[in-house]
Amino acid sequence: MRGARSAQAHEEEEESVFVSMTDMTISFLFILMILLAFFASQFSEDDKVPKPEYDRVVTQRNLANSKVEELTLKVTALKNELEATNKKNTQLEREVGLLKEEIIRLKEEIKKLKELLNSLDKRDPLEKYLKDSAAIRKTILETLRDQLKIDFPTLDVIVNEQSDALHFQGDGLFAFNSSELSPIKRPIVEAIAKRLNEILPCYTTGPRSNLKDGCNSTRATIEAVQIEGHTDSIGTPESNLQLSTQRANTTFTTMHAHARDLLLHKNIRNQSVLSVAGYGDMRPIADNRTEKGQATNRRIDLRIIMYTPSDLNEIQRIRDALNSGQPMVRVQ
Predict the structure, then answer these.
(1) Domains of the chain as residue ranges with CATH
(2) Which of 75, 96, 123, 194 has the most Cβ atoms closer than 10 angstroms to its Cβ?
(3) Between 127 and 242, whose confidence is greater?
């Protein structure tokens, strides 16, 4: 009897659990239905996207993705380029640093050289003045040569640094045994006069003196511009000496006729710097055994003689004379 009651109680307990599970399932399904009903109520036909629009958006998305990939590649390339540039800049910075150090070293060397030159100048300013005067004379001769070559490109004109003169190769200047200038060559002599008249004011005193800015900073002065006549070796020494002097005189008068101001250029002793001299056949520059050599020796030389001071006081007086443009009758 007791066993039957126990079995019945067990069955009733199982049935009660089953009922509870069923109720829970039904409750869950009911809640789910309510949620579905809610979402269904929220659904609208307007939220649908048309297929063409969808395809267009997808296409744009794909294009955007491609563009992103392309830009990503470019960014990577730019990063690599930037990295290479940075490395190059680093190398250049090292080189610049080395160059700066080299510049500092060279500046120190230049400073030492300037100090050395200054000390040399202080030790012997007279020697420096004479050296500068010689350099100026060379510059004057080369300037005159270059200007004449512009006027007469085929003219054979040479600067002889040893004799401080400008050689005008004869060949046509004078005929054999003649002191008359060839009419064809006369323009050459006239051009010499014109060019000299332009150059001399920078190195002479007198009414034409003109020390322009940057002109003759050393204040070197010309003692004489000597027109020298020469002959070949044919004839006696006496006749050649006379002929060469006549050629120099002819050249002088031709130059003066073309540029009257030439005689106004004075040295510091109030003398005209223009002068003449004849050397006959005593100073050949070519072989007199050939006709070509003889023609070359029948020539005119233009020699520039710079004034040589005897001491420092005289250098200062020379500079004062050039600055004022007034010749000094006598330099003590």
Answers:
(1) 125-324 (3.30.1330.60)
(2) 194
(3) 242
